[in-house]
Fold:
Amino acid sequence: MMHTKTFRVYKSHDLVAMQIGGAVKNVIAIGAGMSDGLGYGANARTALISRGLAEMIRLGTALGASERGFMGLSG
Structure:
C-alpha cells in the first residue's frame, strides 16, 4: 500500500464512522480554538471536546456507525 516512514494508511470497513468522525472533529477543533481565544481555560476546552466526542458518537450511531469506529483514527 502507501506506507512510508512518515506516512501510514489504516483501513476500516466502518465508512460512516470515518466520514462523520473526519468532518465533526473539525467543528470540535474550531470550537476548542474559539474557547481558547476567548480565554475560557483548559476545563472549558476539555468539556467542549468531551461533549463533542459524545455527540459525534451519538450522531454516528444514529446513522449506522459502530461506537468502536470513533475510538480509532477516524477523527
